[in-house]
Queue: 3 jobs
Job 1
Amino acid sequence: MVKLPFGVKADGQQVHACTIASTRLRATILDMGGTITAVMVPDAQGRMRNVVLGLADLAAYEASGWWNCLIGRYANRLKNGVMVDGRHYPLSRDSNGISLHGGRGDSWGSRLWEIAEANDAALRLRLVSPDGDQGFPGTVTADVTYTVSDDALRLDYAATTDATTVINLTNHVYFNLAGSGSVLGHQLQLNADAMTMTDAQQIPTGEVAPVAGTGFDFRKPQTIGGRVDSSEPQMALAGGLDHNFVLNKSGVGASDWAARLSDPQSGIRLDLLTTEPGIQVYSTNNVKPGQFNAQGIEIQRRDGLALETQHFPDSPNHPGFPSTLLRPGETFRSTTIFRFSSDRSGSH
């Protein structure tokens, strides 16, 4: 691993960029929030491209909140807190009672994580989240291991607790397989026959609806630009894709193929495998003005696509959804693999 200074946080803490590499793939991760600033892979012509939509500098990552970083304790949305073992925890929430990605403010993505272990091809980061952090019960110890192989970046999550709690971890990495510009020309395919429907605040209603016959049917490859501006009510609510898809699973916790993203221009293809039951697909619908990418170009709406592998949003408040409870003596484990390949056509 190559570890270099990346910048100094507003509170004076030094942040480092840690680069791990194989013969054909290189990934750079910050010890602040496990933020992925770059994944370098060869395109169809053999040229190395960064397929991650990174930001200009450390200050931009600090200001962004959740860009390319680890999300905890609970990825996605929770409404009006949670009940755990008969006690209600109100959590850190906005004026609508919604906690998004653990709550704004001191997010997991803005914190320095301990470098627990590292070698040329792997990096393990650790965070101890104290009891009451973001309003959640229990002291949680989370470990996330990033590993590169010749064609993939793998993320292995593990977490333990000293009191019963809920947990839902992901990395909110934004992909752009062309390296820059819009992802509207990318093609997306999802191994999902259904999605969780939401209300006007994007909180699940509890209904799991088939995608067949809707703009959310990505069971065969679809060009993103042909779908994200659909007038369908669910798409209009979010201003594009910002929805949880229910993945087709061969078994609970099985590492199954979940998604394929491809770019005809670069010829790069990303295949995603995960043990998680769901994936939140987000088409960068809301971008703050004055936010610049690593090339110094202002980021526009639809410049990236996030593929957030996770349990379903608001699961603790929907008994029919897969459980996110974690009890003392148990270990939460999750794996997501981003596998890259390339060909001239950009299709397979």
Job 2
Amino acid sequence: MKVLRLLAALSSAVTTLTLSACAVGPDYRRPEADVPAAWAATIPWREANPEDAERKGSWWTGFEDPELDTLVTQALAGNQNLRIAAARLDQARAQVAISRSALYPHLAFNADPTRLKTSANRPLSAYDSPNVSTVQNDFVVDATVSYEVDLFGRVRRDIEASTATRDQVEADFENARLVLIAQVASAYFAVRELDAEREVVRASIDAQQRSLDIITARHELGFATGLDLAQQQALLDASRTQLDLLQNAREQNEHALATLLGAPAPSFTLPPSTRHDWTIPPVPIGLPSEILQRRPDVAAAERAMAAANARIGVAKAAYFPSLELLPTVGWESNAIASLLSLPSRMWSLGAGASGTVFNGGATGANVRIASADYSAAVAGYRQAVLTAMEEVENGIVGLAQLSRAEAESTASVAGAQRALSIANDRYAGGVDTYLDVFTAQQALLADQRETVQIEGQRMLAAVYLVKALGGDWRVPPTTR
């Protein structure tokens, strides 16, 4: 009982001493980053006022495409890169537990049963009595407690670093999730754009085939030249070539989508669709400073700074000695029957202090390494902020310009259709050559394909912008 009371008193004293001790190294303060007051492009965007409490990350549902929703669900369950990120997150969380374990005493148990014979010829321990050979048992059971007194905050700084690293890896996981969903959405809309473009080319091929049939008939009657026939055949062949190229591009995007879903490319197919009623969710753009709170990559860079700052304290703690308490309690006897009896009890109280007197400047070098790592983390954080500003501004400007381009392209298609109709009428009336019809067919196909391409680019730009904003804009940003 006296031993237990002594250990309790010692533990209380150590705890008080540890709590009152200082932690070497700088306390963390997040550096400032230059953030503009507003975005350069304001039309057609409005300032965000997020109020909806919908779960962060389900932004893809704003496109109102059930097939996309299904693909995203499959990707979140099967993507291998996301599983790697999840495993790294588990590792980071376990590392925090390891670091925090240093706050508590470590208990080691030892059981050492021995039967031994001593040598009669061993050196004499007393010159007036000779040695004899004996055979005896030695049963030892003991428990040793080791505890490092965190006088200079090495353990606390290590916990601070591992906790910040865990937060960084959590942000990296969220960023991996965000990037994955954006890649799935981009690949999906690329496939759908190619489906729509193939439909346009097929319709044009049908029209060009009908025109070739007419030209062939007129040529046989002597009303059309061989040049007219050759031009129309060349246009039809070129359109068929473009259709093959579009099919190849679609298959490439389909294979990329399969990999994102975690499915083998040969066994994955995405049935063609001619849907054109794509929905672009209205994305309200808030203040630039919100990007610092929404984007997981910026959050990861900020947590990397905190971890690097804490590691400076860990490195500086090596300048100071460490104090370790080593109490032991146990029993020792030559017979198992008396092992746990009171006379067999043994105990010891000990402490050890260790420190480096000279190591050729290694400690100072480690401090400089940690300081340089922090400086690099600060630069990385500021670069992440700059990249975020760039991507959001590009998304805002790009989506606005594509909206205008789509309206202009639609008007261009209507004009090209009228031009082709007029050219056909003038050619049928013998006013113009077939070259005008040939040129009008080329222009119409080019304008129709451009319109579909712009629609696809708008979808990709919308995905890019939401990704640049850090995911779902329908939830209020969180502050650390």
Job 3
Amino acid sequence: MNRKLILSIISVLLIIGGFIGYRYYQNIFGEIVEKNGAIYIRSNDNIGDVKKELIEFIGDKNNFFWLAEKKKYGKPKAGKYMLTKGMSLNDVINLLRSGNQTPIKLSFNNQDTLEKFSGRIAEQIEADSTTILNTFKDSLFLAENKFTEASVLGICIPNTYEIYWNTSAEKFRSRMLKEYNRFWNNNRLEKAKVLKMTPNEVMALASIVYKETPKAVEQPRVAGLYLNRIKKGIPLQADPTIIYILKQQFGQDFEVKRVLYKDLKIESPYNTYLHYGVPPSLIAMPDITSIDAVLNYERHDYLYMCVNIDKFGYHAFASSLKQHNRNAAKYQRWLNKQGINR
């Protein structure tokens, strides 16, 4: 009787132990991640912060801390980590402990100012916009690389880059400088030399070209027009530079649909109605097509252009002032008819 009782107790204990063991095994090695997704671990996060990030994917599993301690995972490595449905808790901790994060595809296009650019980047990496902005404005960096606060935006070539989410502001800046130097290869530098322009001057002109027209098909023609004016010693008289000045004075949200005659008299080194040649630096972030449009400009004899109201989005070009005045008068009549006064 006693023997049967002992065997029964042993059997029950084995069943209970097996059940508990199975539960632990399932919790550790069984499929626990409920969906695909990414978690973001910040540089100052602790193990508790990691647990909070994981709750959405694994629920409130109490054995996370226990297994993390057993696997000596106590100091989180920052980054973006991709979780896939069906992963075990053991898989998750191994991934986080290894620091094998997934890079992101960081992209940006034509940001008008360094402030807007910093905000755009801060939406995609860990660093905040203020830190990014201050990093690009660092006086030592600017001096070492011969940039100014006005021209440093030029090192940011619009594109898509593979980068780690927790990349610091300083490392991101270094990456942009590296990409800038790579962009300005011998071929582009030689073309700039033929134009008797520095990369900074090409970027400045390209930014005007882009602001005149984002259409890649027309950019080489616009670039050729401005280069014709430079060769002939005629001021660029580019309205985008006047708009740039107005936004500098009244804020980036200041809307300018029409440049007024009085605006052309504003004293500024960026006023291309008063000063010859390209402005001291770019007025916005040009895209690659507009930069290459300057370097590979269209050869023609155009010196003037204005909005083509018969084909909006494009320009009416002219070689003579007489023809341009006709085109401009047509455009002015259209503006008056639309009631556009500013």
